[in-house]
Amino acid sequence: MSEALSGKVVLVTGGAKRVGAAIARRLHREGANLMLHYRGSEREARALRTELNATRADSVALVQADLLDIAGLSEIVRNTVGRFERLDVLINNASTFFPTPVGEMTQATWDSLVGANLRAPLFLSQAAAPHLKKTGGAIVNITDIHADRPLKNYVITRSLARELAPDVRVNGVAPGAIIWPEDGSWDDLTRQRIVSHTLLRRTGDPDDVARAVYYLVAEAPYVTGQIIAVDGGRSINI
User: Fold this and answer.
1) Which residues pair with 92 in a beta bridge?
2) Whole-model pTM above 0.85?
3) Is 154 a catalytic residue?
């Protein structure tokens, strides 16, 4: 068990399945206590809580919330601190991603994308900041390999790093082809084309992302304002 995370408290949004669950398992294995946020994946969230608490009792709790509800974001943080009496790390993992062609975009799709991918992480980070400052904590934003390109401009990582320094470190992890969307919107040809632009010529694993998150949380005390691409080299070969 890592001394770096033993007794530390981590809040993971979208932590019930996929990459979020991999992050949760990795950090828990290294000694962290977890507050796992979920929106609709109650069955998966409860199963993961049971799994992890079986290895270390009372080390994992759940909080259900819709991150588009700005008023409820502070409550997520309050629930975490109320349960574990501290907060050391915030992992902004929950996101929404779907195509929005010009001419088909609506206010609802705009609100969903901006709300989940930008507004919620920003306001959740703001709510968590006072507690993170007390513990010398960290924020890790799970972004996208297009973090520095037009597709999904995740500006809050670097701006927050400036705002919260020197007390809180803020970094990002930008996954590439790790897990395909669940809605089946990417057919085999699209997937093959994406992998062909990946220098390693293969998809990654959720634990590849989790390892990068662990590094930023536990092994990088002099790293802030950075975005690590975990994408098999795709971001330099697009």
Assistant:
1) 141
2) yes
3) yes
